[in-house]
Amino acid sequence: MVGKSREKIKHSLFSRFFVVLVILVSILLIFGIAREYMSRNELDNEINQLEDELQRLKVQKKDFLSSIESYDSDFFVEQEARTKFDMKKPNEQVVIIPISGIVNNQDNNSDVLDSNKQMDQNQLNIMQWWQYFFGIKS
Predict the structure, then answer these.
(1) How far apart are CA 104 and CA 99, in angstroms?
(2) CA distance 116 to 126
(3) 86 backbone φψ class: left, alpha, beta (φ>0; ψ -120 to 50)
(4) How far apart are CA 128 and CA 6, in angstroms?
(5) Whole-prediction pTM value?
(6) Which of 9, 58, 85, 88 could form a disulfide with 92 if both were Cys (CB 3.0 to 4.6 A apart)?
(7) Are 88 and 82 in contact (CB under 8 A)?
């Protein structure tokens, strides 16, 4: 009888130890799986950010290449030659307008605008646009 009780105690200790061991291993597995899941989510987010950046850089590259193509065009070369080197085409005449003429013209325009402003103060903006486009007074 003493042998059976020792065996029973031994068996119950072994089963308790086994249950605790299984619980500990299960907890360790759950923590490991959770950690891997979190690191995978972080990697997925980083991959998505990098893919977005790649798309943005592709668009930027496309814009850059199109701007390079525009620099190779004859129109761009002609404009640069005109503005930077003061060049002109053969048989082309260049007209230079003195600044004093522009100032006098602006003064005359400001007088006309002041007189028109007083006349049109009572009209609505929409009516002014209507008159401008269609020339019809209502």
Answers:
(1) 9
(2) 16
(3) left
(4) 110
(5) 0.42
(6) 88
(7) yes
